[in-house]
Structures are given as C-alpha cells and as structure tokens.
Amino acid sequence: MLKEWHHLPKGFEQSSAKTLLGLLGGSALIHLEGEKPERLFVSILLHGNEDSGLLAMQYLLQKYRSKKLPRALTLFVGNVLAAHKGLRRLPDQPDYNRCWLGSEEPECEETRMMQKVYERMEEERLFASVDLHNNTGLNPHYACINVLEQPFFQLATLFSRTVVYFTRPRGVQSQAFSQLCPAVTLECGRVGQQHGIQHAFEFLDACLHMDHIAQHDVAAHDMDLFHTVAQVKMAPQVAFSFSAADTAELHLSPQLDHLNFQELPAGSVFGQVSTELKQPLLAYDEKGNEISARYFKIENGQLKLKRAVMPSMLTLNEKVIRQDCFCYLMERLDYSTKG
Question: CB of 134 within 8 A of CB of 187?
Fold first, then answer.
C-alpha cells in the first residue's frame, strides 16, 4: 500500500486529489532534500476529501521548482483511494487519522502502514511535523497539539493564536509524531477556501526557512489555549435531521455550526427532541469514559447543555457526523499555569 519516492513524481504539482491515485498508485512517502538537513514532515489527505494540504504543498513545490528547498522535506500522501472518490474514507476503510501509534483500531493494513511510516521517520533527524486538514463546519483556522510544551506552543502559534490541546481521539498523526519532534495538526477551514490554502502554504514556507523552533515561553496574550474535554458522538440508533420538515427524533438547529468556538452558557439549546428520546448524544472523556449526563440534558423537549463549554467541529454534514463525530467540547486552559 505504501510507495516510497526519493524524488518528486512527475506530474505531482499538477495533479488533483482525484487523479493522485493514477499517478502514485497508492499512499506515498516522498523524500526531498534541502539546504538544512533536519526534515520537515508533512502529511496530507489523511482524509481524502480535504485537499487544501495538497494545494498548499503544490504551491510550495512550484515556488522551489528551480532551486533547492531551504530544508529537507518528507511528504506523506495518505488516503488517495478515498481522494479518488472525493470521500473522507471508503466504507471499508478505517479513518487514516486514527491509525497511528496508540490507535484503538484493530490491527489492519492501514495501521501497519502508519507504523512503517513512523519507523521510517524515526530514522531521520526531524525538525517538525505538520498534518494538514480541512473541516466542514464554520470554524476559525486553528492549530491542535498533544503536548503542553513550549516548542509545541511556538509551532502552533506560528499558524494561529487559537490552539487546541487534546489527547483523544487516539491514533492521530500529530500525537504519534509528538514523540519524535514538535508536531501540530492544522485546521485550515473549509475545502475550496483560497485563504486556507494560502495560510497553510505560508506556514510551511516559514517552517522551511526557520533556523530553529524557539524554546522560550509564548506570551500569554499571544495564545488562546483550549483543552478538549469530550468527544461527542451521535447515538447510532438516533434518527436526526437539520430540517424540521423531516420525521426525525432529533431536529438539530440549521445554524448549529455557527456555535463553533463560541463560549456557550449552560442551558444553550442544540435542538428539539421527540418525547420518547432519552439521550441522543454520547460524550466521552479523555479516558474513553461515557460522560453524556455531565454535559447534556433534555428539558421541555429541548436538547440543552448542562454546563458552560465551547464546541468545535460542529457540522451540518450528516455523513461526517456518522463517520466521525458530532463535535468536540472544550474548556479554556489557563496558560499561565502551563508556561
């Protein structure tokens, strides 16, 4: 499933996400040399329908087409099978960003491939790791980290002052590579937004030129740090809809994704429920414990928050909700105690 290249495959700069399968034949690890030997590792298309990372990389490669890269770079091109179909993942595939070291997925071809990528990069001197993503809801551009240390803060705030710390879900790329070097996941807005592609390109170009990642403290006023305290999934048996005209047990607000990165008070309403429905949303803490009753309640036919919290990744895409999750819940983290 994994092909390794020591040069840029001809035609890569012009390929779309849908045509990469024909060019690469499968997932690919592409090593390119540069002036500085410590490598920047970049992963793209772990979700096949999120192509801003590919487009940003193409801009970067075109910029240095006739000259040597400022820094050695390794690019991992992930789920080209799903990208060929314009999908996040194929129905018979696991999520490519849940298959890395520490994954809760059963062993399979994909987990073995990610292990091989990790072991291969373990042999290299790594400068930093960057995993590029899009999302489907209304979210700002933000960076995610899995370690509360200054080099991670420095790398994250190079992209955005909004930084999210999480330890769950398990098996994500940035969590695995954080054992090798400073690692971030970058959320670059919706697919097709030019400013997200440009933002990712500028970040990657800056990483190629940086001499080192600073070790000193990020100023508290330069970072808004949030901690993901729960992953929320839709209960599998629940019929839900964003349209009041549908005969569903749970009618969610069609403006739901406007609540992303808003600090919501207790009592905020997410939707309307039928009288028989008990608990449509299942929340899990960092240890995998089910804690739905801590955050949600049904009152007078409305699904409400029980405590103040900030959601992220709320989307109106029903397929994404089923394949991944409903949202994440975050709380502001006092950076002054972590600096």
Answer: yes
339 within some domain = no
* Cβ–Cβ under 8 Å, residues 226 and 163: yes
The pLDDT tens digits for 43-63 are: 999 999 999 999 999 999 999
Reduce the DSSP state of residue 156 to 3 states and report it: helix
Tokens of 50: 């999120």
Q: What is the pLDDT of residues 157-180, one digit of tens each?
A: 999 999 999 999 999 999 999 999
Q: How many helices (H) and strands (E) does the chain have?
A: 9, 17
Residue 194 has phi, psi (to 5 degrees) of: -60, -35
d(CA 310, CA 308): 7
Range of the domain at 187: 2-218
Question: Is pTM beyond 0.70 here?
Answer: yes
The residue among 175, 198, 218 that closes a domain is 218
25 and 165, same domain (yes or no): yes
